[in-house]
Specification:
Layout lengths: L2 H7 L2 H8 L25 E8 L17 H7 L3 E3 L2 E2 L5 H10 L22 H7 L3 E6 L13 E3 L1 H8 L3 H8 L13 H4 L32 H16 L6 E10 L7 H4 L23 H8 L10 H31 L6 E7 L18 H4 E2 L1 E4 L6 E3 L3 E2 L3 H8 L14 H5 L10 E5 L7 E6 L2 E6 L5 E4 L17 H14 L5
């Protein structure tokens, strides 16, 4: 029996029973304060802080001299920082679906930003809910449809726009187009039949493509999505943090995802003239790269202005400003956790759904398996554990298995993740982990798959040339070795492991 059959049949009865629990249970169905489904012992709270499109290297604690991330850096100093963490699909909705369920994308329906995944798949919320936790999601998770996927308490883009009222016009202007990845609409189906209600009602700027290079937001700082997520997370902690019932809270920001339009005080921290283009900018050997990559380098369709290095530096400055604003908001939530005396009872994790190329190889946004796009920050602070840095390549598909094990929560359905607890205890643990895998666009015209095994990364493009990089000797990924005779055996070995994990359609 293969993995898909096992997940569909062996756990079907358990999962079906679990998903019959209403998303918002009545008061008489909730555990009594001080008790949990696992017994009378108080289990730890879990706080998962998330951002969107945070390039792994863009943190002070990762050695970036430009990034202003004091709160994440402080958390990193108390946590295990996984310096080689990867998403499983470098685009928003599929990555988040994989993170929430612990399943690789080819085991899920979500292959793009417009397709939801089935309620038959258990999420972290289902696991924690069945263990007696109060489960809450505040912010972005890009579920694509109206499912709550097991959360008791849920606030998202639609709630933010209700808060904004007429000021939603300012955000519509910033996006300039329908964009579910940035939450307008959050659910594509809402506008599918009647069309975009904002069409013809936006005040357009002078951008050349659909995505602006960046500017200061016209929304007041407190009105931006990050301010909303922060305030509502603080409200949740004040109302429910000390009731005696453990909580599982996800506070999920949009920044530094575009639009790169931060508040003024963060924009003032960074000047385009101070930005240095990446070492690999303009140096890609396009004769050895897949056609899609070459096309993206030569014509960045979302933001064509970035062909100009001055505009590229401007975009970098607004990215770093957006990142600084997100860090400031994350710091407020962490500060309140301490103020409420919850710090020593709460496991804290920080990560992002994917990275941002930010000019590496002349590329922008995500969608690729290069380190800037597929690499993500991952910090996990466990009360009582020693902080450190683990360079073991790991994957966000393991987050569900890890957080549930740390909280002593039984998973109600099996998944693909490998718990990271051995490396949280000892970053040099010899415990076998295995390679890291990622995939993109299984049902698109250009599907591709990636394996990271030790120092090596191999990408198989179904309809184009393969890529092979030694990340130890070539961290900028400038030298594709896949077609070099001297590396034929290495490429063949990695391709075999990749196809053993999942055989792509041809």
């Amino acid at each position: 029996m293969d993995r898909r059959s096992f997940l569909a049949s062996a756990t079907a009865a358990t999962l079906s029973a679990a998903l019959e629990t209403p998303a918002r249970a009545g008061a008489d169905e909730l555990p009594q304060p001080g008790s949990t489904a696992a017994g009378s012992r108080k289990q730890p709270n879990v706080l998962l802080l998330m951002s969107d499109q945070h390039k792994r290297s863009c943190m002070g604690s990762s050695g970036d001299p430009v990034a202003v991330t004091p709160h994440l850096d402080a958390l990193a100093g108390q946590a295990m920082r996984f310096s080689n963490a990867y998403c499983n699909n470098p685009v928003c909705a599929p990555s988040r679906a994989s993170l929430m369920t612990g399943l690789y994308s080819h085991h899920l329906e979500t292959q793009d930003n417009s397709t939801p995944y089935s309620p038959r798949h258990a999420t972290m919320a289902h696991h924690f809910n069945r263990a007696g936790y109060l489960t809450a999601l505040i912010g972005k998770m890009h579920f694509v449809d109206a499912q709550t996927h097991g959360f008791d308490y849920l606030l998202d883009f639609n709630d933010w726009q209700q808060y904004l009222g007429p000021k939603t016009q300012l955000y519509a202007d910033e996006l300039a187009q329908a964009n579910s990845g940035a939450g307008l609409p959050e659910i594509d189906d809402l506008w599918r039949e009647e069309g975009d209600p904002w069409k013809g009602h936006r005040t357009r700027d002078n951008r050349e493509g659909p995505v602006a290079v960046g500017r200061v937001s016209l929304l007041a700082e407190q009105d931006q999505f990050e301010g909303f997520v922060t305030r509502e997370s603080e409200r949740f902690l004040r109302n429910f943090g000390n009731t005696g019932q453990p909580f599982f809270l996800i506070s999920s920001f949009l920044k530094p995802h575009d639009p790169f339009m931060p508040a003024q005080r963060f924009a003032d921290m960074f000047h385009p003239d101070d930005m240095k283009l990446p070492p690999s900018y303009g140096k890609a050997d396009k004769s050895k790269l897949p056609a899609e990559v070459v096309h993206s380098i030569e014509l960045n369709r979302p933001t064509p202005e970035l062909r100009d290095p001055a505009e590229a530096r401007k975009r970098m400055a607004f990215y770093y400003a957006s990142l600084a604003q997100m860090d400031d908001c994350a710091g407020r939530i962490l500060s309140l956790l301490k103020e409420l005396n919850l710090e020593n009872d709460t496991i804290v994790c920080y990560t992002s759904d994917h990275g941002e190329m930010l000019g590496d190889l002349g590329l922008w946004q995500k969608f690729q398996f290069y380190e800037g796009s597929c690499g993500v920050p991952l910090l996990i602070r466990v009360p009582g554990n020693q902080p450190g840095v683990c360079d073991k390549p790991v994957s966000l598909v393991s987050l569900s298995a890890t957080l549930t094990e740390l909280a002593d929560v039984r998973q109600i359905a099996s998944n693909d993740g490998v718990s990271l607890t051995p490396w949280l205890k000892d970053p040099h643990s010899g415990t076998e982990h295995g390679p890291v895998f990622a995939e993109y666009g299984l049902r698109s015209r250009q599907p591709k798959y990636m394996i990271r095994d030790g120092d090596w990364k191999y990408t198989w493009w179904v309809h184009d040339i393969a890529e092979l990089y030694n990340l130890k000797t070539d961290p900028e990924e400038l030298h594709n070795l896949a077609a070099e005779p001297a590396y034929a055996s290495r490429a063949s070995e990695l391709q075999a492991k990749l196809f053993a994990w999942y055989r792509p359609p041809t």
